[in-house]
Amino acid sequence: MKRILLILLCYAHLSVLNAQDYSIKFDGIGASSSVSSVNVENLTQGITLKLNANEILHLSSFPTNLLFLDQTQTTEIQFYPNPMNLSTQMDFFIPEKCTAQIKLYDISGRMIAVTDNYLQKGSHSYEISGLGNGIYFIRINAHGFIYSGKILSVSSEKGIPKISYNKSLSLEEKPAILKNAKAEVFMKYNTGDRLIYTGLSGNNLTIVSDVPTESKTVTFTFLPCYDADGNNYPVVKIGDQWWMAENLKTTKFNDGLSISNVTDEIAWGNLITPGYCWYKNNVADKYTFGALYNWGTIKTEKLAPIGWHVPNNTEWATLTAFLGGNYFAGGKLKEVGTTNWTNPNLGAGNESGFRALPVGRCNSNGYFNNGGMRGTWWSSTDYDIDYAKIWEMDCNFNYISNSGEDKKCGFSVRCLVNENPQSIGIPILNTTRTSNISASTAISGGNITLDGGAPVTVRGVCWNTFINPTTANYKTTDGSGTGSFTSTMNGLTANTTYYVRAYAVNNHGTSYGIQENFVAISGGEAGTVIDIDSNTYHTVTIGTQVWMVENLKTTKYNDGTSIPNVTDNNAWSKLITPGYCWYLNDITYKNPYGALYNWYSVNTGKLAPKGWHIPTDQEWSTLINYLGGYSWVANLLQETGNSHWKDYNRLATNETGFTALPGGSRFGGFSGFPGEFTQLGYYGQWWSASDNGFSVTNSQFMQSQIDTYGTTKETGLSVRCLRD
């Protein structure tokens, strides 16, 4: 029996050592060569994780009790030497002082050593020793920051595993070896698992489907795909075709003209002009399912984003043929699972990355049906005078069908890139948000991401007091070539609404960016306000309100009296008088995050610059309701990209110009971490001036959505001001 047991244990150990163990790196080409983040979905196992820039995906079939390592890392960890013999040095960086718990695991997932240390912000060094031959894993939990790494030991001697603190490297910045290190993020992987990678670079999203069999580099081809509303779409290459990986949701044609949103059943049935609707007229479905369009919108040939088109019937047939024919293609196109599809969602595997969804349809009489059961997409091919070709998938079948449908129906739309995505004719560009607005001037500009296959000879912005301005109206000329440029608009009239678009010209023609609008502001140093410390803030008009565009950072009240700067954690947590601090008590966070104030400083009525005030609950509600309610407003207010927001921020548009930043907070006295700082880069929280009469009062919380909630008055939060 002992011999059999020994053989089984040896076999199990060899199985682990010979398990799949692949490293996947990522880079980009096309509109961008950098990759800011990657979302990884294991369709086979239902596991999803996110990698930040410069992180490596480590696929492994190690035991499941090691799968704590699939946490997204927020910084790098470095071992040297690695492989180690008797010992190795481990260096890592923490962005704020906290208690760090370090655990060491062997290959079976058994914890063999642990240590807890209170560490200052900066770089720290530990020695790890006493490890026998094998593979080991480290997990560091530093107040919400999760780091993990792998050690290979080649030592022939096994001692007592130890984690010993060496020293603080006394660095406020990451040393070069850590800045340049490639951190690993672990994911459980078995042979044959289907992975979907979604790469993000700026506003560009590209999907790659993969079944890894070795370590490699995955290259994302980034193609700009954004509509006239400014929605960005992920794209995926299937065979030789580049498809949108989401349904179209634009409410405008690509020339900026609005499409009619028809909600009445009778009106829809009588419609002979272009129109769209949301399924059951529920706009909340927009970001998941997209819109339903009648065939009149398809016929205009202006529905797709510039550089893209609605595919004809032959192009759909090319897609299905590549996937093995109509009988098999439906399953390879449908989203996995029953979150959106009705059970049984037969054959769904989404191995193409297309992620077809069952939006349902709007019938020719204006009635909706088949939501959750079927997805139907237009082609641009006529069937006859009343019907056009469509493609349809069903939850009960594996196949995709092709037939003709009434042109008055409303169906989903997917778009296909023009033949050569690097040579699509006219340039592709964005319009920069207007800033520095005064009574007579404003600054805009653009960013040209693709030249369309011919050099850009002229670029600039054009504007007027009506929609869709062209180069025949007011314009600037700001050089040539691709990339970003800045334009100054002069000769504006105060209190007038203007519409502006960036433009670019090559020998194929002139193209325009998405239209922006702004109001020229009259009086004083328009578009800015200065506090008692001489800090300058930009302003933005949203509806009937004028808001600061930056968080408050004054150290004095508007009467010149200083506000106490409280740095001690214990003192802060017990403070019942006004006070402020910088995040981590580090003044370098002043720009761009501003200061954190307790509510007692807000309640003085003297914190805002003269002529301004801290908004009440009702005034916050006015802003939120003007922008459409709590469900979507955060995306309209948050700064775009991941320069300051650390989490996946792809839905943020900042189309209001509010530029909300995640300034974090400081705990008050009733938390488990009195006086501690937390969540910089992850959450933005702002005080309301409304007092509910107790020790808790209201504030606004934002991370992809906005909410009002109660906060202890000792808490340190950001402040935005509103003009009187």
Name its key features:
724 residues, globular, mainly beta, 12 helices
Entry summary:
With 724 residues, this protein is mainly beta.
* Helix/strand/pairing category: mainly beta
Count of beta strands: 48
Helix content bin: 10-25%
Query: What share of the residues does DSSP label as strand, in percent?
Result: 35-45%
Rounded to an integer, what's the Rg over CA atoms?
29 Å
Looking across the biggest beta sheet, what order are the strands in?
Answer: 3-2-14-15-17-18
Q: Main beta sheet: strand number and arrangement? A: 6 strands, mixed
Shape: globular
Tell me, rounded to a whole number, the average pLDDT: 83
User: What's the number of helices?
Assistant: 12
**Segments where pLDDT lies below 50 for 5+ residues?**
1-18, 64-75, 176-181, 522-526, 694-699
| C-alpha termini separation | 86 Å
List the helices and strands and how they pair.
Blueprint: H1 2-17, E1 21-30, E2 37-42, E3 47-52, E4 56-60, E5 77-80, E6 87-94, E7 98-105, E8 111-119, E9 122-129, E10 134-142, E11 145-153, E12 162-168, H2 176-179, E13 184-188, E14 195-201, E15 204-210, E16 216-222, E17 234-238, E18 241-244, E19 260-261, H3 265-269, E20 275-277, H4 286-289, E21 292-293, H5 295-299, E22 308-309, H6 313-322, H7 326-333, E23 361-362, E24 368-369, E25 374-382, E26 387-394, E27 400-406, E28 416-417, E29 428-431, E30 442-450, E31 458-464, E32 474-475, E33 483-489, E34 497-506, E35 509-512, E36 516-519, E37 528-530, E38 536-542, E39 545-548, H8 569-573, E40 580-581, H9 590-593, E41 596-597, H10 599-602, E42 612-613, H11 617-626, H12 633-637, E43 665-666, E44 677-678, E45 684-687, E46 696-702, E47 706-712, E48 722-723
Parallel strand pairs: 1-16, 4-13, 15-17, 19-20
Antiparallel strand pairs: 1-4, 2-3, 2-14, 5-6, 6-9, 7-8, 7-10, 9-12, 10-11, 14-15, 17-18, 20-21, 22-28, 23-24, 25-26, 26-27, 29-30, 30-33, 31-32, 31-34, 34-35, 34-36, 37-38, 38-39, 40-41, 42-48, 43-44, 45-46, 46-47
Helix pairs in contact: 6-7
